[in-house]
């Protein structure tokens, strides 16, 4: 690869004689040439800048000086020794080349450019020639990039980040480092490129450690010294996912769900990211879902969600009219407004997907006094811990069922309930009734620490339903704890 850097401070680029890039140059893997832009000036003062049209502070770099320099190094000058770039106006009349024309790329660093990324570095590593035009002052006359774009040169105006440097030389150093290390033979062990941050996996790299095993009182994570390669790989993947979720949520939102296994999804779920089922019109991407307490503003959206999800949880033999009557009697916006207004009696938690609105909710009915009997008389016999609250609803939109959202809602509900006190007594248990036939739901609840306590009967319209009553002890140091990322079915409606 050939790289040309044009600058008014050639000495700034001396660092490119050092380290791996310097070695790559000496080994002939990289033909790197640094040019002094002032060599293309014609006046006595070697002027490269002038005052801005329209007025204002600072100076702007002249397009005529840049044009002469770039024509020479890009080979776009009429009498250039380098062949013109393919597709340019000037090359249009040239005889077709027998082989593919060289790919020449003009890179113009500027804070107003597209962000320079690893993906762009990988793309540029396949080019034949990169030309870096380092601006100074207020930058380069805008016609320079426009002109070369119009003449068919591949031009990228690139930014290192959202800050302003004095000149483009640092950006040139960055681009050369990032691209050169991807060229064959530059990095001694190419395997070290595979799991790096911003690579094909779209993740940040996991934390890395070396000897000594304990330093400043900090020990290396035990798994890394276990010799178990499978466990090390899983730990590293978990760390990469967790780090990315914590530091770069924008990257999580771009992950390809096809590349996320069950364990990956569990890690993301612990950080509030869930993968919905694919929609007809859109490929799924991880979505950030925050579990929070409901507010009065949620009433209408929760009623809509309840009306959409409640029928899906009803046993097939239940009459549609009964289902609708139940919704009208218990799940309208007015009902939710009442639940949300009475936080001594009701705990409403919402799984909030931001602009997509609520994708799930739980409704817990709290006892008002420590001795209050739970809702159904026959439940009193099986739920012995007091005070106890009823987890009345756990509903999740179909697209998010199996995504882990229900598990996150359940965990949050258990945590909230465990922090509640009635008559100065900590809530001792959370109970729920779930349809006896729904084994999947029962398995899911048991993964979240609920154990079967007995049975109860209840009526929805004409149907007499049988529920399994499950109880989650909320007192400290009991229950196996939640297994995050697991799917949870629906509780059967009881009010
Ligand atoms: N007036 C310009 C603006 O506000 O966008 C800033 C010009 S800056 C002082 C001078 C030169 O530094 C730019 O032409 C560019 O070469 C370089 N530069 C500054 N910040 C940069 C960044 N974030 N990324 C890439 N190059 C940058």
Plain-language structure description:
By secondary structure, the protein is of the alpha/beta class. It is 29% helix and 22% strand. The chain has helices at residues 19-26, 63-74, 118-124, 143-150, 169-180, 229-247, 249-252, 262-270, 299-313, 320-330, 333-341, 377-382, 405-418, 439-447, and strands spanning 2-7, 31-36, 49-50, 60-61, 104-115, 129-133, 154-159, 214-215, 218-219, 273-274, 287-288, 290-293, 346-352, 358-365, 388-396, 421-422, 425-426, 429-435, 451-460, 463-473. Residues 109-112, 134-136, 138-139, 159-161, 163-168, 171 line the site of S-adenosylmethionine (SAM).
Keywords:
single chain, 495 residues, Alpha/beta knot, Aminopeptidase, disordered C terminus, binds S-adenosylmethionine
Question: How is the secondary structure organized here?
Answer:
Layout: E1 2-7, H1 19-26, E2 31-36, E3 49-50, E4 60-61, H2 63-74, E5 104-115, H3 118-124, E6 129-133, H4 143-150, E7 154-159, H5 169-180, E8 214-215, E9 218-219, H6 229-247, H7 249-252, H8 262-270, E10 273-274, E11 287-288, E12 290-293, H9 299-313, H10 320-330, H11 333-341, E13 346-352, E14 358-365, H12 377-382, E15 388-396, H13 405-418, E16 421-422, E17 425-426, E18 429-435, H14 439-447, E19 451-460, E20 463-473
Parallel strand pairs: 1-2, 1-6, 5-6, 5-7, 15-18
Antiparallel strand pairs: 3-4, 8-9, 10-11, 12-13, 13-14, 14-15, 16-17, 18-20, 19-20
Residues 109-112, 134-136, 138-139, 159-161, 163-168, 171 line the site of S-adenosylmethionine (SAM).
